[in-house]
Amino acid sequence: MNNPTDVSHTQPADDQPLSGHFLTTGETGAGKTALTMTLMKDLLNQHADGEHHD
What we know:
This protein is an all-alpha fold. It has helices at 2-25, 29-53. It has one domain. The chain is 91% helix and 0% strand.
């Protein structure tokens, strides 16, 4: 369950919503990077927790 969820959640969930939000809000490069970093950190934290528990 970790494998499919990992790929499905990391690829589309990370690319689609971000791109859509940036295109709609027209955030600057700095904001884009900061937002991506925050979301990435969240994803990494969740994955790390799941891996450790597994």
